């Protein structure tokens, strides 16, 4: 993708967004479902209250992840000034932290960071849709398909929760869930023929 061929930018953005959804969303769901067990097994049961903070962070993590596909667009269009939006959201994050932390503690810091992520994503969308005027599309179908594909993995995790008392069992259940999710994604992916072609060409360039 180059700045000289802007017709590829919306399609590349959509492909990157789908990649973020299919790879990042499962990780967030895993931490929501088994985060309590991860904390207890790998750290300490005394840190169990940290799960509340983890839930807040996971709830907002998807918004932060959806800002990543904008990076290549900024580079391709040479709109490096847009990177200053990160500075604006950082200032917002600091202000919200100062206001929330004294009121609700460490969870307030997580909420502040999460709200900054939502603001960051909203600013990117507004700038690219109405300033740069690129017809970007949110991968709503990919989100729905990913949620459906995660059902078997989540079901396995929920059924196995009473037996997750050691690292090996937790690892085994995680790998089993990942395998089921991988198979579901293979049969029920949201990639078009054009996007599969883009992936093949990118892979061919890397292996050439």
Helix content range of the residues, please?
over 70%
Low-confidence stretches: none
Largest sheet: none
DSSP summary, beta strand count? 0
* Overall geometry: flat
- The whole-number mean of residue pLDDT values reads 88
Termini Cα gap = 18 Å
Rounded Rg: 20 Å
The assigned structural class equals mainly alpha
Q: Strand share of the residues?
A: under 5%
The helix/strand order is HHHHHHHHH
Structural account:
This protein has 208 residues and is mainly alpha-helical. 78% of the residues lie in helices and 0% in strands. It starts with 7 loop residues before the first helix and ends with a helix. The protein is flat. The chain has helices spanning 8-42, 50-65, 70-77, 84-104, 106-131, 140-149, 151-160, 167-187, 193-207. The chain is built from nine helices and no strands.
Q: In a few lines, what is going on in this structure?
A:
With 208 residues, the chain is an all-alpha fold.
Which keywords apply here?
208 residues; mainly alpha; 9 helices; flat
What is the strand and helix layout of this fold?
Elements: H1 8-42, H2 50-65, H3 70-77, H4 84-104, H5 106-131, H6 140-149, H7 151-160, H8 167-187, H9 193-207
Helix pairs in contact: 1-2, 1-6, 1-8, 2-5, 4-5, 7-8
């Amino acid at each position: 993708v180059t700045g000289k061929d802007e017709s590829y930018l919306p399609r590349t953005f959509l492909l990157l967004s789908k990649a973020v959804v299919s790879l990042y969303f499962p990780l967030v769901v895993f931490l929501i479902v088994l985060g309590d067990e991860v904390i207890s097994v790998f750290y300490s049961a005394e840190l169990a209250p940290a799960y509340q903070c983890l839930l807040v962070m996971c709830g907002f993590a998807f918004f932060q992840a959806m800002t990543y596909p904008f990076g290549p667009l900024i580079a391709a269009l040479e709109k490096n000034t847009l990177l200053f939006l990160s500075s604006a959201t950082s200032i917002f994050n600091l202000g919200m932290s100062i206001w929330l932390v004294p009121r609700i503690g460490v969870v307030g810091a997580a909420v502040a960071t999460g709200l900054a992520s939502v603001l960051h994503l909203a600013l990117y969308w507004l700038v690219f849709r109405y300033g740069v005027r690129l017809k970007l599309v949110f991968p709503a179908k990919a989100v729905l398909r990913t949620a459906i594909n995660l059902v078997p993995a989540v079901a396995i995790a929920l059924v196995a929760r009473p037996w997750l008392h050691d690292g090996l069992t937790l690892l085994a259940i995680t790998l089993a869930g990942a395998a089921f999710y991988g198979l579901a994604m293979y049969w029920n992916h949201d990639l078009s023929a054009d996007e599969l072609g883009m992936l093949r060409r990118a892979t061919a360039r890397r292996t050439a």
